[in-house]
Specification:
3% strand, A middle domain of Talin 1, globular, two-stranded antiparallel ribbon
Length: 307
Amino acid sequence: MFFSGLFLIIGFVLLIYGAHILVDGATALARKFNIPEVVIGLTIVACGTSAPEAAVSISSAITGSAAVGIGNILGSNIVNLLLILGISGLIYNLDVQKNTVLYEIPFLCFCSFLLMFMGWRYHMITHMGAFVLCVLFLTFLGYLYFISKTNKPENTEKEHMSFFKMMCFIVFGIIALIFGARMTVSSAIDMAHFLNVSERIIGLTIVAFGTSLPELITCVVAAIKRRSDIVIGNIVGSNLFNILFVLGLTGLIVPIPFEYAFLLDAALGVVATVLLWLFVFNDKKFNRIEGFLFLIIYIFYTVFLFN
C-alpha cells in the first residue's frame, strides 16, 4: 500500500511535467509552421494524451478483461467532457472555433451515438463494426489535413524555439504523460482491489480517471495559459481517438463484448456531447456556468455508479 501511494505521487509529478512541456512544444510548433492550434490539439496533443487509453484498452481486450477496456473508453470520454472540460471552463471562458462547432463536435456526436448503437444492437463491437470505426478515423484525419491547408492563421507572434527543441518537448512530454499515467493507473487499481469493486466500475472510474489524467493536466495547463484551441481540440480529438482508433483497432484484433450495463454510460457520453454542442452553438464559447453544470453532472454520475 505504501509503494502504491508513492508511485501515485511520482505519476502525478510526471503528468504535470509532461503536460507543461507538451503544451509549450505544441504551441511553438503551431506558431512556427503557421498551423492552427486547434489542429495541433486535435492531432499531436490528443493522440499523445490518449496513448494510455489505447494501451489499457488493447491489452485489456487481448487478456480477456474487456469490461475494463470498454469501461475505460466510455469512462474516459465522460471524464474528458464533464470533468476536464468542466474544470477548464471554470478556469477560463473557452473560445470555440467555428469549424469545431459546425463539424468536429457534431462528428463526435455521431461517433458517440454509433458506438451506443453498436452496443445496443449487437452487444459487441464486431470486426465489421471496428472496420467502420477505422474508416471514420481515416476520414477524420483527411478532414484535419484539409483544414490545416485551408485555414492558415496569421502568425502575429514570432517563435524563437528551435524545431529540435519543439520536437523534444512534444516527444518527452508525451513519454512523461504515458509513464505517469501507467504508474498512476496501476497504483489506483491496486488500491481499488482492496475495496472489491467490479471491473466495470473500476474501468469507468479509477482506470478512466487515471488514463484521462494526461488530458486533465494538459487542459488545465492550456486553460491557465489561455490556449482555448488546445483545450477544446484535445477534448474533442481525444474522444474521437478513443472511439475510432482505440476501439476500432482493438475490435479488429478481437471482438469486444459490450455489456448491457454499459448502454447507460454510452448514452451519457452522447448526452454530454450534445450538451456541449448546444452550449457553444450560438456564442462559440464554453463559459464558467456551463463548466460548473458539467461538473455537477459528473458528480451525480459518479455517486450513482457507487450506489
